[in-house]
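Example S7 (structure tokens).
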């Protein structure tokens, strides 16, 4: 598959999940409730996908303005249509480019990067990039994977990862704090949230393949769903975790 085909299939995987990360509606609402402190923030999402975080913040707070950046044109189109339906499109700017290349003429009160630190080659480079965009006293909401326990080879193979790709949670938090950040709120995704995400990811893709058997990508979609489900159930389930933290600078 080429990159366009992969992007198309990726668009199906979150059709039945509230957000492109292993978080429930209640968890997303709680994190946004802590992150959006005044209701007048200027928000930036680096790797916004279909803009789920931004759309929720804009819909709940009529004085919030936001920008989203992503390389997936299809996701940005979906975000734009959703913003129009919600009547928040005039307060949302969408930018089709790599998140690492984005520049703005003004700083932001709140920067999101949940599940997209790969766009910056890791957690600490992501925080460095976020700091460049952050206004004094601003906050960062960041979501990152970690090892809940030492991964065995089945977990590494299932996730297509190495041991060094993720830290355990104490090490992850220590690195963040050593880099000058203070966690002021956080959420570790529960096993139920992680499982719901995987069932939604694989199920949405598998169902699309069943419903569109004549599409040239149907066989690839079915194979990808099967491989991902096997890697999860026989490999990294119970080993991979996900944490979302609200951070402020120590200085």
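Recovered sequence:
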């Amino acid at each position: 598959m080429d990159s366009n085909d992969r992007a198309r299939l990726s668009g199906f995987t979150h059709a039945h999940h509230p957000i492109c990360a292993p978080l429930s509606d209640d968890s997303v609402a709680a994190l946004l409730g802590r992150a959006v402190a005044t209701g007048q923030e200027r928000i930036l999402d680096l790797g916004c996908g279909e803009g789920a975080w931004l759309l929720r913040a804009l819909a709940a707070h009529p004085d919030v303005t936001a920008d989203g950046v992503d390389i997936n044109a299809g996701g940005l189109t979906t975000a734009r249509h959703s913003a129009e339906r919600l009547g928040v499109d005039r307060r949302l700017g969408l930018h089709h480019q790599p998140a690492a290349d984005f520049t703005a003429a003004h700083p932001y009160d709140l920067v999101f990067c949940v599940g997209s630190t790969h766009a910056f080659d890791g957690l600490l480079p992501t925080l460095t990039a976020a700091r460049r965009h952050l206004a004094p006293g601003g906050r960062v909401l960041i979501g990152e994977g970690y090892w809940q326990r030492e991964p065995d080879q089945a977990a590494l193979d299932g996730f297509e990862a190495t041991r060094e790709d993720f830290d355990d949670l104490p090490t992850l938090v220590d690195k963040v704090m050593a880099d000058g950040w203070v966690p002021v709120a956080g959420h570790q995704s529960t096993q139920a949230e992680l499982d719901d995400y995987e069932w939604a990811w694989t199920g949405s893709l598998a169902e699309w393949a069943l419903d569109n058997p004549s599409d040239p990508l149907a066989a690839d979609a079915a194979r990808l769903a099967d491989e991902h489900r096997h890697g999860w159930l026989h490999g990294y389930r119970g080993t991979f975790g996900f944490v979302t933290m609200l951070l402020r600078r120590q200085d």
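Notes on this example. The two ends are 47 Å apart (CA to CA).
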